[in-house]
Amino acid sequence: MNTAHTSPAGSGPAGGASADGSQAQPRVLLLCDRLDIAGGVERFVCTLANHFAEAGMHVAVGSVNTLRADIRYPLHANVRVLHGPHGPHTVPEGETAWALLRKQWCTGRALARLMRAEQADVVVLNGLTTACSVLAVAVAVAPGSAARCICCDHNHFDARSRLWRALRGRLYRRVAAVVSLSAADAPRFRAINPRTEVIYNASNLRADAPAEPPATVAPLVLAVGRHVAQKGFDLLLHAWVAVQQQMPAARLRIVGEGPLRNLLQRLSQDLGVAGSVQWLPPTPQVQSHFRAAQIFVLPSRYEGMPLALLEAQALGVPAVAFDCPTGPAEVLSAETGVLVPAGDTAALSAALLKLLADAPLRQRMAHAAIQRSAQCFSPQQHLQRWTDLVRRVAASGVKPPGSALGSALHSARGPVS
Questions:
Q1: Is residue 225 domain-resident?
Q2: Which residues constitute the domain of residue 250?
Q3: 337 and 388 together in one domain
Q4: What is the pLDDT of residues 301-359, one digit of tens each?
Q5: Straight-line distance from the first to the last Cα atom of the chain, in angstroms, rounded to the nearest whole number
Q6: Could you tell me which residues are beta bridge partners of residue 178?
Q7: In this structure, are 357 and 294 located in the same domain?
Q8: H or E element in which residue 280 lies
Q9: Core vs surface per residue 247-268: b (16+ CB within 10 A) or e
Q10: Most buried residue, 20, 233, 296, 306, by CB count within 10 Å?
């Protein structure tokens, strides 16, 4: 572990002028609990950090214990990677309520240390439990520290327990801004903090025209996501039974990883569909999977603004999705995909069978999806809105706690890898 504390050249107070009279670039820190898994939050953090670095900002990403070599998504060379000082086993494991609470407390302490050491002008906190854990510790030590934070839950408003929602209600009112990924949840976030903005996620993947898999190839349905309960792959497997019965040639490809992988594979065997289901690991070349699929399916129990669904639409893949709380209903239209009642596996089967049997309908949806994606979910607009928000918070004049002690503290860095 490298514990050097040198700062990047040119760093200085945000929102003011540098020695030559030009506008100083803000120091930005993006925090999440870990960066060594292939998930939507982790991809978001790396993508946003890369954009900020390309815009000339001084950027760091921080996690509890992920080294640079273990980060799953590409990072710009100018993005520094910070992590806790005690190595890879600092957070206790366990599944009991007490163990999970203790884990979050340790996560909050570790990330709050990085926040104090980095002395960034703007801190972006990602995920409700991570944000509340960090803020609870940071505010106790330095009450004004929340005023330079931006919080983004990356999930729908009710996704976590009442305890976490209560903490959010107390802590988010202190922060500089809150980002809601969906218009549906924005009023509820705005009731906590009026400085709430809606910034949709966006796909970095793009296509000018949909792919046209050969008619001789077995029909392929694609699902992408972590193997966790939220993503509903167990529900998808139950729905897939009826699809297989009526269309035996169809294949289901599930791309991802996670703690439920073995259980899901056993379920596919118990349901008698294992022979038609492919399990593939995450890959930076996920675009090739989308381009090979006739249909994308999102069987999630809940979402924020699902990045995999946005990617499917941007690449012209018709989609079938559960109408789960927030996300799919704002991404899909009747011209680009099919929404079915949340958790209704029979309706999911019927929608998949309908699209698999109707190639002209799929083609119309595919073209409409690309057009809608370009109009409503532009990656340029997504990144620009985040950039504008960060610059506004940096220019607000709130100084990091301890900045008055001098430039040495302002330039302090946490452990880097």
A1: yes
A2: 220-376
A3: no
A4: 999 999 999 999 999 999 999 999 889 999 999 999 999 999 999 999 999 999 999 99
A5: 6
A6: 151, 196
A7: yes
A8: strand 277-280
A9: beebbbbbbbbbebbeebbebb
A10: 233
Q: The whole model's pTM is what?
A: 0.85
The strand pairing partners of 322, in sequence order, are 340
Say which CATH number the domain at 360 has: 3.40.50.2000
Domain shared by 399 and 372, yes or no: no
Q: Domain total for the chain?
A: 2
**Tokens describing residue 133:** 């854990």
Sole residue written with tokens 């569909």 = 273
- 21 lies in some domain: no
Rounded distance, CA 34 to CA 258, Å? 14
Residue type, 313: Q
Give me the residue label for tokens 């806790």.
Answer: 84
CA 175 – CA 178 distance, rounded (Å):
7
CA distance 174 to 171: 6
| 187 and 48 share one domain | yes
Q: How many other C-beta atoms are found inside a 10 Å radius of the C-beta of residue 343? A: 14
* One-letter amino acid for residue 348 of the chain: L
The residue assigned the tokens 């083609």 is 363
The amino acid that residue 230 corresponds to is Q
